[in-house]
Amino acid sequence: MNIKSIFFVKISILLLLFSSCSTVGFHRPSIRNQIDFGESAAMKVCFFHEKDISKKDIHKLVSAWNRELNLYNITLVNPVNAPVYERPGFYNNRIFLYLFNMKLTDPCDRVVYLRGRKFKDLFTEFISILFLLFTGLKFEIHGMVETATHSRGIIKAKYVNLIQLFVTSPKKTLIHEGYHLLGCGHSLTKTKCYDHIRKLKQKMKQTGHEEGFFPILTNDGRYLDSRESVNKTILNLFNER
Ligand SMILES: [Zn+2]
């Protein structure tokens, strides 16, 4: 990957940084219950995890996200849990570069990198907690999803500090980023997101759709109906810049 591509990834991540500390909206059960989300569908999410993330941690995360997805008649399937022995880089843009270099292949519909906790992370957390206490602003990034295809994300899967747990948790982060992986943006309520998920599930019935692939409906209305179309979209982005 050339320098321009790396620069592009850095810029993309920077934009995501600004957008990540918000909400995907409060639930509106009265509205959600009136929507027909169609037949049951499986979304297959592959995890790449650092070595301090245990099977038990992953199981807890999958269960929490599954409970949320069940609201839309979606079942989370976790076919791959691949350990990453060395983090591709300290900053998330390096990890995204690693994820972008990876083609989306069967059986994965989405790929999530579970970031662990190293000494450098502890130092960053300490600084961010001080910042939070003195300014009330949270600059620590708990999770991110790329906006080009919504197929790849990173979450911090290990917190131990009480202040952090008070603010958020790995489960909450995964559920939040999970909505971005479905293509939902930030909003005050989930009303728009419900409609987005309904449309996404409807699209799955279209002819030409790659069998078994949980598709992607981007913010600008593009429908990615196969892993190949997701990979092409990413390749085109790098070639354009
Ligand atoms: Zn977000």
Provide an overview of this structure.
This protein has 241 residues and is an alpha/beta fold. The protein is built from 9 helices and 8 strands. It has a single domain (3-240), classed as Collagenase (Catalytic Domain) (3-Layer(aba) Sandwich). Strands 1, 2, 3, 4, 5 and 6 form a 6-stranded mixed sheet that branches. Strand 5 (143-145) and strand 6 form a beta hairpin. 31% of the residues are buried. The mean pLDDT is 85. Bound molecules: zinc ion. Residues 20, 22, 176, 180, 186 line the site of zinc ion.
Which key phrases capture this entry?
alpha/beta, Collagenase (Catalytic Domain), 6-stranded mixed beta sheet, two-stranded antiparallel ribbon, 9 helices, 8 strands, binds zinc ion
